Amino acid sequence: MTANPEMAREAARTILREFGLKGTPVPIERIIKARNVVLQYAPLEDDLSGMAFIKDGIGIIGVNALHHPNRQRFTAAHELGHHVLHAAAIQKAVHVDKGFRVLLRDDVSSQGIDPLEIEANAFASELLMPRELLASALDASGLEMEDEAGIEVLAKKFRVSASAMRFRLAGNF
């Protein structure tokens, strides 16, 4: 399977349109609830960010309660991406995300090149940092994409980590 990040971003844009969202921060918990997916927070191993699974026909997202709230938001959006984009894969097993970009506990996924992970990251990135809102924020603020202080300002506005914002601005999500 080859990753299709543009399809994942379009799925996120569809959700943003459905909710009529035009501001920041994007209410990820409300979106998850409206999609009839249960969101649960629990203390997990530090290298475990989250998981997506289905139990008794109900979609469930588990997020590491010990991580920073902004990282939790990205993890929740990433796991929602798995529910939206990869329902068939979730039906077959519990998908556990170790670290920031790992879906399965294997050598390929630990390299961050697994197609499902690439798509879930693209989905989460577009959902929490929509291209149009990000472009407007950059234009309005006059911030430079390479300016570390500017990245922190944008990350705070969108309630994501500075790391996630850096990846987004670099075009890696």
Automatic annotation (TrEMBL):
Pfam families: Peptidase_M78 (PF06114)
Source species, domain of life: Bacteria
Gene3D superfamilies, per the entry: 1.10.10.2910
Domain IrrE N-terminal-like: 34-169
Record's protein name: IrrE N-terminal-like domain-containing protein
Species for this entry: Rhodopseudomonas palustris (strain BisA53)
